[in-house]
């Protein structure tokens, strides 16, 4: 289905499209159809009430009010759009220029924008309308100047994000002039939100312009717009309300049209991308459950829509964890480790599509549970420890609040009971109870990570997924965190899925290791075989790239040659084939299956390293 058809399937989109089309038709056709009746006085029909000949009555010269309201559509819309475009142009240029000018000029422009924002826009418009003189031109200029500060602040905020990008820095190095930097590198990257803001501002400008005309500062006779017609009908509103009601309804209708149009365009931009709207079939029950497993995943795949097409960063992943077991998941950055964890925890973006043959947590089939029950089961049975605890913890809340809110929501515990459990959780991770009154910024990196682990322990989960929990920590704190996780799983029988790219740490800390490459698991083996018993060439390359104290400092560190495959153009064969020193002819034609080498080791490779070679 094409993008316009998907766009118009929304009821709001249909309504806004019909309303906008009606305004355009009226603006074009009304002067031709009703222009004569709107401008022809009739002394015999002065100030008449509604009738069949004049549905909304006549004015003080006998002119038809309905014809004048319809004919005023064109000048009202054109003047509002002119004021909006002038204000948007000036504001955008003023705000976006802060990204390309020097430091002193940037400060001056920022101070100017702040100064202009200190005054209400409507007050500025009224003042300038008096200064410029009553009339359509003065009203348009007054509204344009009043709208500049708002657009300038929006453009300045958006341009600040572009100012720190590498491509703008590279353009500066090339010596491009400031106007080229502005037109080629800044404005194209902030055009969409500015367009949406302009669409919404058109409705506001229409109301403001009608207000100025109503006060006698806008359009002057013999010309007229909706605001002037509203003023003329207000004198007789108690006797004949329709002459005042008609232009008021026209102003409301046009302003609402622009507001709905802006909302629809914003939703369209947010949903951009080749999103598959085909209704997904109802989830089939998972495969047979295996007894004694905390987590059982079989054939898990993840699809993500992108502007260039749909990619499958995770495909065919199978893993299982038993109570008290620590399993490491390793691989290069971008291999799909974190996406696998997020898919298990149901934390992927809404546009992501997950398929699986089996997905069970603590014996429950997650795919067939109702959404509310599934969320509760995940919240109480699984805990996530993210890589950056500084962003995972809310900086505005105390540690006590963040530790107790989950147990109070899911275990219906009182405040005192939840606080007592939080004290116990902090002591279990080696932190004093006094930290409950602290906020995240008052803690060190290691303390924040311990708080994250304590937060997960509050609900006594059966599984902890630790996604790079030690990456940002020094070696001493890394040891403390891994020792803490090892002690916790012995005390509580909690299984741990430990995701990391640190091969040495995983080999020392975990019991089993799953090696992931290009979104799939290529080898599963005991941790004590990782250094000398790995059979997949990729696993051996990862192990060989780990430096040790005995390495020759005069030689460069070994690395894995080549680069991971492009997810937008997956090859039909083994994904590691272009980088593999043991590739065969058919490796590029067919992906190898995961085969058992023995009772505890599996590998997906057509030509694995022989056992005697691996041991040597």
TrEMBL record:
Annotated keywords: ATP-binding, Cell inner membrane, Cell membrane, Membrane, Nucleotide-binding, Translocase, Transmembrane, Transmembrane helix, Transport
PROSITE patterns reported in the protein's UniProt record: ABC_TM1, ABC_TRANSPORTER_1, ABC_TRANSPORTER_2
Region (Disordered): 553-574
Localisation per UniProt entry: Cell membrane; Membrane
Domain called ABC transporter: residue spans: 295-543
Membrane-traversing stretches: 12-34, 77-100, 112-145, 151-174, 194-217, 244-262
Membrane topology value: Multi-pass membrane protein; Peripheral membrane protein
UniProt cross-references to CDD domains, sorted A to Z: ABC_NikE_OppD_transporters (cd03257)
SUPFAM superfamilies: MetI-like, P-loop containing nucleoside triphosphate hydrolases
Limits of the ABC transmembrane type-1 domain: 73-262
Keyword Transmembrane on entry: yes
A Pfam family it matches: ABC_tran
Listed InterPro entries: AAA+_ATPase, ABC_Ni/Peptide_Import, ABC_transporter-like_ATP-bd, ABC_transporter-like_CS, MetI-like, MetI-like_sf, Oligopep_ABC_C, P-loop_NTPase
Biased composition (Pro residues): 564-574
UniProt similarity note: Belongs to the ABC transporter superfamily.
Name the record gives this protein: Dipeptide/oligopeptide/nickel ABC transporter permease/ATP-binding protein
Originating species: Kitasatospora cathayae
